[in-house]
Amino acid sequence: MSQTEIPYSVLAPGPVNLHPKVLEALSLPMIHHRTPEFDRIFKKVLVQLKEVFSTSEAVYTLSTTGSGGMEALLVNTLSPGDQVLAVVSGKFGERWAEMSEAFGARVHQLKLPWGEALDPELVRLHLEKNPHTRAVLSQACETSTGVLHPIKALGEVVKSHPDCLLLVDGITAVGSLPLPMDLWHIDGLVAGSQKAFMLPTGLSFVSFSKKAQSFWHRAKMNKYYLDIRKEKLANDKGETHFSSSVSLIRALSVVLDLILQQGLENLHHQILQRALRFREGLSLLNLELYTQSPSPSLTAFRTGPQFDSQKLRTQLEEEFRITIMGGQDQAKGKILRVGHMGHISLQEERNLLEAMWKIFHASGKFQGDESRWHHFLTQRLPGTQRQERHL
Ligand SMILES: *Cc1c(COP(=O)(O)O)cnc(C)c1O
Prior knowledge:
With 391 residues, the protein is of the alpha/beta class. It is built from 13 helices and 15 strands.
């Protein structure tokens, strides 16, 4: 294999490594989207998606990245001038607040220090003082900081306000961790293909509770492509309103089969176990988590003053062909983020930690306990066969 043929180990919080069966599905010859064959696939996908969302409502598949799905939740439920409370605890919270402003909502930002999880009590107080609030927006997991917010408790708060919706960006949560839409009173939920769905970027999935559906007819925000009522009419016939992303949806069908065959809980369990192994490794490398409330879907950690996180990231990318992510904005240069979603082998988990150990040791600024390290690797990440990714 030449250097360029060795696949990257994409351990980012999206996009992620693709499953081999997904790669296969993506290389199939094209079929038209208005055919019985495609309709069969799409109808099956629509049923399976409901299971992943844990909802009895319809889940819509849009040919947009995750942000398009976030937009769909807003424009189908809100009107210009509506009051919205946006939980802003990082980049993606900022994005949703900006998006709502762009569509004319009056946005109150509940700003949290980066790395901190939401206290739902703050939302309860805000809604008490501002009874005309039409929606609360929150990430389930804020991917820029790795924080997991208490969505179940937030659902308990918002459900007692009959004219206010809880809209949740579950893009790094759906499929990664328990986020039962119906049970937790989530009114709008969005997921994205390049995270726990193990697909390339390009699809988003959205669902609306009954309460949120009752907002559709009065939602006056401008929309055309993302008008969910048109999508609903098409979906009822097993079609999408516009051209379907046939290749991605065929690959989605493969992933949903895989996920539901092994069970959703099993996927959650796998992702959590990866996160726990990685965090154990971090502690042996004397590295600290960025947040006290980490999400299983990714781990954000501080690199400390002695290591330059951007440099470490570049070294992993160029010398080891392992992709992880740095911090954004105020966390830039301070943290690194490793995703636990996607098709990841134990060997790849091990390769990442070993590469970090090597880089730290070579720097001369780190003295780890070698025997504890080897014990950890042998016990927790037993190598299958030595698949050298170091070039
Ligand atoms: C990845 C991600 C998005 C996604 O955006 P794209 O439009 O797919 O780039 C939105 N929110 C969160 C929390 C994410 O992790």
